Amino acid sequence: MIAPTRPLPHVLPQVDAIRGYITQVAEAFDARNLDVRNVWLDPMNPRDATFILRTHAVVWNESEGFVKGRFVSGAPGERTVLADPVKLGGGVLLEPGHAAWLLESDRVERPTVHRPYTARDGLDDSLAGY
């Protein structure tokens, strides 16, 4: 079976709400030839998604934004574990092309953030725009 390079719909509407954003990020990664091999949406609290690339993995979550590292374990419905994780920084909801640029250029942007996943700060409204 060929792994999807775009996230499949999730049964939980709260998790599926991130799918549009994650799809656009996967497309931005592809546009920069970052070799997306697989993408899936993960559990809640916080909601997150995993991108498996040729040489490493990237996890996006609603508390920390993008984190890259070497894939250790994970699957749809499981929390992904990365070795030597590095936050890309710049915020939780980076513009997809900017996230791809940070990853491609191997840069880290300050500030790195930690946002409580329970925050009512408009993130869901922003995600709905994707």
Describe this structure in words.
The chain contains 4 helices and 5 strands, in the order ααβββββαα. With 130 residues, the chain is an alpha+beta fold. The chain has one domain. The chain has a 5-stranded antiparallel beta sheet, with helices on one face. α2 crosses α3. It is globular and about 35 Å long.
Summarize this structure as a short list of keywords or feature phrases:
five-stranded antiparallel sheet, globular, alpha+beta, 130 residues, 4 helices, 25% strand
Q: How would you write the strand order of the largest sheet?
A: 1-2-3-4-5
Q: Could you say how many structural domains there are in total?
A: 1
Taken in chain order, the helices and strands follow as HHEEEEEHH
* Fraction of residues in helix: 25-40%
Query: How would you state the average pLDDT, rounded?
Result: 92
Distance from first to last alpha carbon: 28 Å
Total of DSSP H or I helical runs spanning 4+ residues: 4
Q: Describe the global form.
A: globular
Strand content: 25-35%
Overall number of strands: 5
Structural class: alpha+beta
The low-confidence parts are: none
User: Major beta sheet, specifics?
Assistant: 5 strands, antiparallel
Overview in brief:
The protein has 130 residues and is of the alpha+beta class. It has helices spanning 13-16, 19-31, 96-105, 123-128, and strands spanning 36-41, 48-53, 57-61, 65-73, 81-87. Strands 1-2-3-4-5 form a five-stranded antiparallel sheet, with helices on one face.
Mind sketching the topology for me?
Layout: H1 13-16, H2 19-31, E1 36-41, E2 48-53, E3 57-61, E4 65-73, E5 81-87, H3 96-105, H4 123-128
Antiparallel strand pairs: 1-2, 2-3, 3-4, 4-5
